[in-house]
Automatic annotation (TrEMBL):
GO BP, one annotated term: carbohydrate metabolic process
Protein name: Alpha-amlyase
GO MF term list: lyase activity
Residue span(s) of domain Glycosyl hydrolase family 13 catalytic: 46-371
InterPro entries cross-referenced by the UniProt entry: GH (IPR017853), GH13_cat_dom (IPR006047), Glyco_hydro_b (IPR013780)
Cross-referenced Pfam families: Alpha-amylase
Gene3D superfamilies attached to this UniProt entry: Glycosidases, Golgi alpha-mannosidase II
Highest taxon in the source lineage: Bacteria
Keywords tagged on the record: Lyase
SMART domains in alphabetical order: Aamy
Xref: PANTHER family: ALPHA-1,4-GLUCAN:MALTOSE-1-PHOSPHATE MALTOSYLTRANSFERASE (PTHR47786), GLYCOSYL HYDROLASE FAMILY 13 CATALYTIC DOMAIN-CONTAINING PROTEIN (PTHR47786:SF2)
Taxonomic placement: Bacteria, Pseudomonadati, Bacteroidota, Flavobacteriia, Flavobacteriales
Length: 461
């Protein structure tokens, strides 16, 4: 398909009008209110447009404690963060441990806080303060495996997968520091559900980010979440991308688009490949109130594949804004990105973030702020139409508009290595506000707009 042609704009718009991830203008919304109801889990109202911030307690401060991190909460609230995703804080197994401190995801006791980080009271106080500041807290939950010295290993060895010799197995050879749980055992399912309940009752968390969610049976998530949601409305994020996960989760990872962006930055693809993603992945998977989390970094990407500066170079900001306002998008950043963190954090040992400057704080604050407040880019229905606009002869120029009633957001990004000129498009004529400069900007017929590599515009009415 030739995505440069104006006919694509019309056909893609027609597709979106019929699709499950675009609500139409006010008149159509009034006719299709029922279609805006969640077809899966009921989404908490506070999660409709809530940017996510991933917190690595170990690396956040020189102290590496919950209390030391807590001092940063007012700054994060000011940055328009709405959901704090806290990486695991439980004690880490010592048997077969990797590195000096071990993996966050090798849990030796689900109901305790590691002495490395503080106490359960510290965690509870952090959650309370986040709530006071208008943020919610979700806890990283590792349901697929435990550390080798978790009490269950000796007390309930039948809760683990074993070979014919009766030896407990790791999930995969490279994960030698953890033991694979066996969800065919009903007693394990009940125990794991109760461990999750503990954190809701004892600390008042607001949901879970579920590690390697596809490796845990969907039937466990379904029965467990049904019961947990009766305690309080929860936000449930799956570390996976499969369509079937939307039966039990509100949000999944945008891995496919993340890898597309990496390929574009490496020169192995063009920005037009984003259209293929939208037309296929979105058509197949998106229903009302089903969210996709987009990011340029996270704990795995940073430590194992490189920072956003390594992988994306000068394109990292343009790529972030391009993803942030797509249909059903939820933008997420990782610990230190607002400080322009340009090093790979050690995964198994202490390696604190350098907070000597907050170079990108204003950038993320503005992107998050528009995402939170502008109705055209709400992550869930009712939200704005998505209009993919003609990029002319420039394959790495990506232009789209989100519209609802008279409210609009226009995103123009040069994701290539060469300068690009924005085509003369009548649909973008008019008066706008520039998100990054806070200045008024008028686009007129015949006006030339040139963007250097990595430049972008986010305009709104």
């Amino acid at each position: 398909m030739d995505f440069k042609k104006s006919v694509f704009y019309l056909s893609f718009l027609s597709f979106l009008t019929l699709s499950t991830f675009s609500c139409k203008n006010k008149n159509v919304q009034e006719k299709t209110d029922d279609s805006c109801k969640n077809q899966g889990l009921e989404l908490p109202e506070w999660a409709r447009s809530a940017p996510i911030y991933q917190v690595n307690i170990r690396q956040y401060t020189p102290e590496g404690t919950i209390n030391a991190f807590k001092a940063h909460l007012p700054r994060l609230a000011e940055m328009n963060v709405k959901i704090l995703w806290i990486m695991p804080v439980q004690p880490i197994g010592k048997l077969h441990r990797k590195g000096k401190l071990g993996s966050y995801y090798s849990i030796a006791n689900y109901r305790e806080v590691s002495e490395e980080y503080g106490t359960l009271d510290d965690f509870r106080a952090m959650v309370n303060e986040a709530h006071r500041l208008g943020m919610r807290v979700i806890l990283d939950w590792v349901a697929n495996h435990t550390a080798w010295d978790h009490p269950w290993i000796t007390e309930h060895s039948d809760w683990y997968k074993q070979n014919e010799k009766g030896e407990i197995l790791s999930p995969i050879p490279d994960w030698s520091d953890v033991a694979q749980l066996n969800y065919s055992n009903p007693a394990l399912r009940e125990a794991m559900k109760n461990e999750m309940k503990f954190w809701i009752f004892e600390t008042d968390i607001d949901g879970f980010r579920c590690d390697v969610a596809e490796m845990v049976p969907a039937t466990f998530w379904a029965s467990t979440f049904k019961e947990l949601q009766q305690i309080k409305p929860l936000y449930l994020l799956a570390e996976a991308e499969g369509i079937e996960l939307y039966e039990n989760f509100h949000a999944t990872y945008g891995w496919t688009l993340h890898h597309i962006m990496n390929r574009i930055a490496a020169g192995d693809s063009t920005a037009e490949s984003i259209d293929n993603y939208l037309e296929t992945q979105q058509r197949e998977s998106y229903r009302k109130n089903m969210q996709r989390m987009y990011f340029t970094s996270n704990h795995d990407e940073n430590s194992w594949n490189g920072t956003e500066f390594e992988r994306l170079g000068n394109l990292h900001k343009a790529m972030f804004v391009t993803m942030a306002f797509l249909p059903n998008a939820v933008p997420m950043i990782y610990t230190g990105q607002e400080a322009a963190l340009n090093k790979r954090l050690n995964f198994f040992d202490r390696d604190p973030v350098n907070w000597s400057n907050y170079e990108l704080t204003d950038f993320y604050k503005k992107v998050f702020g528009l995402f939170v407040k502008h109705p055209a880019v709400a992550a869930t229905c009712p939200t704005g139409d998505f209009l993919r606009l003609d990029n002319g002869e420039f394959k790495d120029l990506y232009i789209y508009m989100r519209t609802i009633d008279d409210k609009k957001v226009l995103v123009i990004s040069n994701l290539g290595r060469e300068p690009a000129t924005v085509p003369d498009l009548e649909i973008i004529y008019g008066d706008w506000t520039d998100l990054m400069t806070d200045q008024k900007r008028t686009i007129k017929s015949g006006q030339s707009i040139e963007l250097q590599s990595g430049d972008f515009l986010v305009l709104f009415t």
